[in-house]
């Protein structure tokens, strides 16, 4: 078996998948969730296989115990301080930043990934597999090589779609509004995630995003080094202090992740705002729906629009359904669909 043949089943999964959303929606539930979970896997491996924190202290404290203590209780830094020895950091008058968020990063990111998938879950639940059931017998993999004789094999499936449309006109507004609400929820979630991440990073996430890859500016709140103090009482009751410098290698990954995450959220917010704005215009504007049906989904290019004028007057719910159907059809399937629609164009 060749390598290409080995990959064919994987390619078939993606080529045959019937989608009930659009590409901006998939940026949220697929691209973003995949990226966040990949980061979680990387951080988990680095944390449990590597060394999440390595400390060097001035006394005779056991290194493993000191590392564990500092990992749990956190380290301290100043914004303009680069650690070389413990004496260089004076934290009087609460002038230092205390960091212990890093042990929660993976858990927080998993929760954030769940929030990005939530609108997709809500939409799939309410969509009820309607698009899948209508297009289930139309194979996008083999339709590419369809001959004229093969048209009969698809005729029944296409007829079922057309019959469904004839029998259910005007019944898709509520169904479509669920999708619109989920699009709005995507936008709200992006803005909420930006604010939540900013709180999680002590109000410095926006600054980190604006600074880009300037590590020096971000080292104060995503530090690579920090000071840790360990206190215990000796046999005579006196308090003993152990000071050390700790290196946080995981923050090297965190720095790059949160910079990219901030830029991605910014892009996602703009794309989602555009999507919601366009959706509102499509709901209120029949002319805009006609334009999209004609030129984006190929209705005018097919040559059938002259005989099926009523299709251009569909309400937004029926329009949304037919565009979901057309976007899941290959060129020749769409041709057959429009051809049969022309033959009994009553819509």
UniProtKB/TrEMBL annotation:
Keywords: Cell junction, Cell membrane, Gap junction, Ion channel, Ion transport, Membrane, Transmembrane, Transmembrane helix, Transport. The lineage of its organism: Eukaryota, Metazoa, Ecdysozoa, Arthropoda, Crustacea. Belongs to the pannexin family. Its main location: other. Structural component of the gap junctions. This is Innexin. It comes from Lepeophtheirus salmonis. One of its GO terms (biological process) is monoatomic ion transmembrane transport. PROSITE patterns: PANNEXIN (PS51013).
């Amino acid at each position: 078996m060749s390598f290409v043949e080995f990959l064919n089943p994987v390619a078939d999964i993606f080529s045959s998948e019937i989608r009930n959303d659009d590409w901006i929606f998939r940026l949220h539930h697929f691209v973003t969730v995949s990226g966040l979970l990949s980061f979680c896997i990387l951080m988990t491996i680095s944390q449990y296989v590597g060394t999440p924190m390595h400390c060097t202290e001035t006394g005779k404290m056991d290194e493993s115990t000191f590392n564990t203590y500092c990992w749990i209780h956190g380290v301290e830094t100043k914004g303009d301080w680069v650690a070389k020895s413990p004496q260089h950091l004076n934290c009087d008058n609460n002038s230092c930043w205390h960091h212990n968020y890093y042990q929660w990063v993976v858990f927080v990111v998993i929760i954030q990934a769940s929030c990005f998938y939530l609108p997709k879950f809500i939409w799939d639940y309410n969509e009820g597999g309607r698009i899948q059931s209508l297009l289930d017998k139309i194979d996008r993999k083999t339709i590419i090589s369809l001959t004229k004789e093969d048209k009969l094999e698809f005729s029944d499936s296409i007829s079922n779609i057309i019959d469904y449309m004839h029998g259910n006109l005007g019944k898709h507004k509520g169904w479509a509004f669920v999708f619109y609400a989920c699009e709005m929820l995507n936008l709200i979630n992006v803005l909420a995630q930006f604010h939540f991440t900013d709180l999680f990073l002590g109000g410095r996430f926006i600054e980190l995003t604006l600074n880009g890859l300037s590590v020096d500016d971000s080292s104060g709140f995503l530090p690579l080094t920090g000071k840790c103090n360990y206190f215990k009482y000796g046999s005579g009751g006196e308090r003993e202090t152990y000071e050390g410098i700790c290196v946080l290698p995981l923050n090297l990954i965190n720095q790059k992740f949160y910079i990219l995450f901030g830029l991605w959220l910014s892009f996602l917010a703009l794309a989602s705002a555009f999507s919601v704005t366009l959706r509102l215009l499509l709901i209120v504007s029949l002319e805009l729906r006609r334009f999209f049906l004609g030129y984006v989904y190929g209705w005018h290019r097919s040559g059938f629009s002259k005989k099926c004028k009523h299709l251009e007057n569909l309400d937004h719910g029926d329009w949304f359904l037919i565009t979901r159907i057309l976007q899941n059809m290959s060129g020749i399937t769409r041709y057959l669909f429009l051809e049969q629609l022309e033959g009994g164009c009553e819509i």
